[in-house]
Design brief:
The structure is a homodimer of 123-residue chains. Chain A is 47% helix and 11% strand. The first copy, chain A, has 123 residues and is mostly helical. Chain A has a single domain, classed as Arc Repressor Mutant, subunit A. The longest helix of chain A has 13 residues, at 17-29. Chain A binds a DNA duplex (30 and 30 nucleotides) through residues 12, 16, 35-37, 46-53, 55-56, 67, 69-72.
DNA sequence: GCTAAACTTCAATAATTCATGAAATGTTGT
DNA sequence: ACAACATTTCATGAATTATTGAAGTTTAGC
């Protein structure tokens, strides 16, 4: 899977209002995570639909899950999310830096520039 | 259109390898932009397919176009892209900041936090 | 073991998206 | 006006994605 295909898959996973809201809740919640039912309640998503969406996000590597009693706790995959955002604007105007204005995201070092130790995912 | 729907639309627009490659080329090119044929050539996309993809991106507000002679020059909508990336990780662990680690993207101010003067888009 | 709760799987349908070929539009130069 | 180039529009079919209802699995408590 090419880099672009991998990134497109992640974007595609988030390109749905329900899933975006899920990711947002998980990002807000931080590393402690949120159980599936805690997500489904406020967002008003049926249980099976919730599973569908969470699996899509998990398959794209954007969320992780662990079991805790009868609950399944989901957490955002922060590294992957940061990778993603960095990719989107991380190479602004490399072909013509001198023509880019002061708001260019690469004009000053950003804390977004992190590297993970993960290899490429093989579907 | 809700905030989530608007963001989902933008993500959806980029959730395709060809469109992602287009955005990447435009971001790399900076404000000067690139003509449609200059995009289509290297990416090996048929002219009509290219139009399809560019329109999807334009409709999501991620690219802008202007005519220059017989060419149509496309540029990335940098503000919108930055808005987008900021949205994705901009509210990390607001519900439990103390439990988030040092890599939390909100743990130090980021140059990504910009505000635009644009109102909400009404489709 | 039984029951309820939390979650997942399955199956069918509806809706959207993408690729392709053919035709049309707009622009430049002769 | 004409020819060539750049881009867009239109129409079709294939493929993917989302929604819904029903049934199945795992865990905790009695």
């Amino acid at each position: 899977m090419s880099q672009d295909e991998l990134i497109a898959k992640k974007l595609s996973a988030m390109a749905h209002p329900a899933r975006l809201a899920i990711v947002h809740m998980l990002v807000k919640a931080g590393p402690q995570g949120v159980s599936a039912s805690q997500l489904g309640g406020p967002l008003d998503i049926a249980a099976n639909a919730l599973t569908f969406h969470l699996q899509k996000l998990a398959h794209a590597g954007l969320v992780e899950s662990r079991r805790s009693g009868r609950f399944v706790i989901y957490t955002a995959a922060f590294d992957e999310l940061l990778n993603l955002t960095n990719y989107l604007v991380g190479s602004c105007c490399v072909d013509s830096a001198e023509k880019c204005g002061p708001r260019c995201p690469t004009s000053e070092p950003s804390p977004m520039h992190i590297s993970t130790s993960r290899g490429e995912q093989n579907d």
